[in-house]
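Bumping with the actual sequence this time:
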Amino acid sequence: MNQPDDKFKPGRRSFLGYSAGAASVAAVTGCASVAADNPMAASASPVVGEAASTTQAVQMPMTLDVNGQPRRFYGDVRLSLLDALREKLELTGSKKGCDQGQCGACTVHVDGKRVLGCLTLAVTVQGKKITTIEGLASPGRLHPMQQAFIDHDAFQCGYCTPGQIMSAVAIVNEGHARNDDDIRESMSGNLCRCAAYPNIVDAINDAKGKMAATTTSPAGG
C-alpha cells in the first residue's frame, strides 16, 4: 500500500501556516461583524494626514502701523508678523532665517521693544507702533547704528544685519550697552554665521554715543 506524500503530514511549519490563516480569517470576519453591528463604523473613512483635516484658514482684515503709516491687508489669523511684513506689505528687510525664534534675523521693534517677527502673530500687534529696518533711517540720513555698522565693517554676507541693527538700537535704548560684556550678553540672541561679532561690538560702542546725542530715536516708532 502506498504511503501518503510527506507534504501532507502534519508538522510544525504547516501547523503555524494553518494557524496564521485561521487568525486572518477570524480578523476579517470579526471586522465584518463589527461593521454589521455599527453601520456608522462601516461607512467611516480613515483620517489620512492633512487631506482629511477640516481646519481651514480664517482670513480677516488687519491694520498694522508700520514705520508711521497704517497698512491694511487681509490675512490668516495665524499669520506671523514676519510673513505679514514680507509677503503682504513687501517689506523684505526683515529676514527669515530659522523661522523658529533662534537666530534673531527677523528682529523688529514693537512699541520700541525688540520682538522676533517669526514668533509674533500679526493680529496681536494691531494698534501698536511697529518699526522695521526700512523705517530706521531719517530722510537722506542713515541712523547712527546703520552708519556705524558700515564704518566698522560689522557685516559680511549681510543676511543677519537688519536684525543685528534692530537689536543693537534696542539694547542702547534699553541701557544694556554699558560695556563690551554687556553688549555681548544683550546681543546673544542674534547669530552671525560669518562671525563678525568683534566688529558688531565696535559698531555699537561707536553708535551709542551718537544716539545719546540725538533728541529723538526712530526705535520708539
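The C-alpha cells above came from a reply further down the thread. Residues 22-36, 38-54, 215-221 have pLDDT under 50 and may be disordered.
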